[in-house]
Amino acid sequence: MRCRMVAARLVHALADRGYTEFTGVPCSMLKGIFEVLENSALDGRVRYFPAPREDTALGVASGLTVAGRGSVVLMQNSGLGYGLNVLTSFNLIYGVHLPLVVSWRGFDENDAVEHEVIGRELVTLLNVLGLPWTILDCSEVQLSVDRWLGHLDEHTSVLIVRDEV
């Protein structure tokens, strides 16, 4: 399946569910999503706020969420470390639940060396933090989104992307 098609389907599925504000730090595995957000913006239905770091993206999305806007954060798994303080000292404490799209760099040990540790331990880290996660099934985007967003009433939830979209 072409990466742009999956990316567009994912952004459309989120926008259809009221998640129209996107922020994050670019990652090559998520490049199709960033291209959709930067180039088409779905005819004004969505907005994208680039962030210099993942903790900044979490702060922007948290503010939008508290203001009643459906927001989504995009990041690679190695950037999750930058966001841990925000997640544990704000989002988890105050119940500001965000949908996170996290690329799973190094999950197959076939990536740059700097992704080995987080690639091996991503799911363990999410479980320790009590963050439910769903792996994106590129052939079942709608179903993946439904499963992922189904946890948001009670938790920040993570959509893990293992393949380039």
TrEMBL record:
A Pfam short name: TPP_enzyme_N
Q: Is the keyword DNA damage assigned to this protein?
A: no
Recite the UniProt keywords alphabetically. Decarboxylase, Lyase
Gene3D superfamilies found in the cross-reference section: 3.40.50.970
Thiamine pyrophosphate enzyme N-terminal TPP-binding domain location: 6-101
Q: Which SUPFAM superfamilies match?
A: Thiamin diphosphate-binding fold (THDP-binding)
Q: Which InterPro entries match?
A: THDP-binding, Thiamin_PyroP_enz_TPP-bd_dom, TPP_dependent_decarboxylase
Q: Name one GO molecular function term.
A: carboxy-lyase activity
Note whether Nucleotide-binding occurs among the keywords. Answer: no
For this entry, the protein name equals Thiamine pyrophosphate enzyme N-terminal TPP-binding domain-containing protein
